[in-house]
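Late entry, written up from scratch paper. The run itself happened at the end of the previous shift, but nothing got recorded in the book at the time, so transcribing now.
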Amino acid sequence: MTARSKIVASMASHHFVGKGLVSRELAEAVRESGSLIGRVTALVRGAGLEVVGHRLVEFDNGGLTAVWVLAESHLVLHHWGHEGYATIDLHVCDYRVSNAVKAASLIESLTAFCFADATVTWRELHLEDPAPALKAPA
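Output as recorded:
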């Protein structure tokens, strides 16, 4: 095994997509200027992951998209304020160390903070073996 293939073999990733109705806590954080970024950043750090940057964009219809760039990959929150709905995209890479437990911890925290009870659905995307149609041409 070459050095490059060892690195590629150790770079598993954990990619999750969640959706559901917005919790009261998330709705309040969205209304309070600057609160959302700080609250979610604290959740990310509490899970043991590192935020290296963030950006929040608000839309005319009351929706927003917030992005956290992580040392381990990224977190994106889409909020449709007028519909009371949100989605989350969390991608955490394993580079030299497994971050699976950290990803699971963050999902638990995000679920409690972002989604109304019993409305959230999470799906894990498995990216290690992409569908043949998505493979790059040889």
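Residues 13-124 form a domain with the S-adenosylmethionine decarboxylase fold (CATH 3.60.90.10).
(Scratch paper discarded after transcription.)
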